[in-house]
């Protein structure tokens, strides 16, 4: 009997992603890319026994031309990485603070984590002295929340336009093509001109600069986020991921004894052996009023990524935990093509006004469109796994896999889609920003040295301080140009942190610095500590600095908290 023409869904005969991912060689038949069986992959068609090749040989052309296109651009930063799949579960509900579905009691969701180093290329060494990236894609029932974090609670900068400049100084030198391991001039020149980096430099040159693999490190949002609850009330939050394995580090010497893929190997085989690494997810929270108070009284700016929130004052509250229990089947498909973005948020979690975070909200999805393509969210590893049928009016573009069928590609009155109303009034939870546009560049102030000083004087042990001096002075030995000037400035910045740090480094490098930074001007930041006003402006140019250094001054949340001036 011939099949009925009406019941044939000819266009739907596609292979499933899971079937493809899990297939074995013995159940597979060799074919060209259009599916035609082919008897041997090494054959080519020639004109005669020793003549040139034939254009009709699709098998060979198919093979070579696909090979020619096997690479996608590596990530411009964080190119070297490792990852795995796992799951998250909420152990202590956060419903009083956030409407995020994933934070409800007992909620679970699948996750994929990618760890990375920052500066090196895709083939660089896992044991580089560098911060580590720690990104988690939480596939929640309200869409994907990407927590794109590092293993340090602070970062090198707080003015976003510095990021590409800073990263260039951590990468290869244009003419010599050397990394900072062989020529550290640009590396230290940047830090000598941007003293707000000092806290992160202390971490980088210290024990936490080379974690012993990825399982033994914590992760930190660094940025301040906002959590919104069902009453539309919100708090600022810092999000922490605490390793259940504890932390471990490698010394500089130990790192040289490890293979280039040390961390990849460690993570993969730990999971293979069933030693599933886990982390606790915790939050520190601060009310808008407290944010004003810590700025006014302690000079701690919640919008400043170089500052930390003291844990004694703002204790950690555990929300959940996650484990990595599944290795990838194919690194390229599941880790190289994964695309994290701080702008991939879900209701109940919002960005703060931190300018570096705001820039990142743009930068990641932008780079994904370049690195992977406009339809990067359609790739299986990036796809949301929501219980409702997601729909929008994005159409076509390169490699559009999901087409959204015949549904109208505009907001149709003929065939309308469903909308879910907002559960909180965003006009109330968003900030209330009024003022003239300003050009902003931050200035260095004495408070910027408080946390680095506590780290040096109270947290580091004596052994750790000795290792620090050895690591930093060893790295400084490779400054090839302007060494004296760069080191004098660095010693002066160290002196603002601690006389002990400065004098040890002066002894180790043989270069004496100034009394502090009050007599210096910097090309990267205004010097709020300069004695002479001519030294105060960055690059000695006539730039205006903003009086509050970008911090939330008293009363700055008043309008949004009282509802004043808000159009409902
Ligand atoms: C203005 C500041 C920043 C900009 C413009 C920026 C930009 C980028 C870009 C373009 C990538 C490559 C993404 C990709 O190709 O998939 C990246 C990766 C990454 N960034 Fe940033 N970044 C900034 C600051 C930060 C900060 C402060 C953190 C941590 C708190 C961070 C954490 C990461 C991580 C973890 C990755 C790797 C993501 C992955 O595993 O795929 N970045 N960043």
TrEMBL record:
Record flagged with keyword Lipid biosynthesis: no
Where does this protein have compositionally biased stretches of type Polar residues? 1-11, 25-35
Its top-level enzyme class, in one word, is oxidoreductase
Q: Which cofactor does it need?
A: heme
SUPFAM superfamilies found in the cross-reference section = Heme-dependent catalase-like
* Residue sites binding heme per the record: 364
Q: Name one GO cellular component term.
A: peroxisome
Which pathway does the protein contribute to?
A: Alkaloid biosynthesis
Which residues does UniProt mark as catalytic?
78, 150
Which biological process terms from the Gene Ontology are attached to this UniProt entry?
A: alkaloid metabolic process; hydrogen peroxide catabolic process; response to hydrogen peroxide
Purpose:
Catalyzes the degradation of hydrogen peroxide (H(2)O(2)) generated by peroxisomal oxidases to water and oxygen, thereby protecting cells from the toxic effects of hydrogen peroxide.
Q: State the PANTHER family in the record.
A: CATALASE (PTHR11465), CATALASE T (PTHR11465:SF62)
Similarity-based family: Belongs to the catalase family.
Q: What is this protein called?
A: Catalase
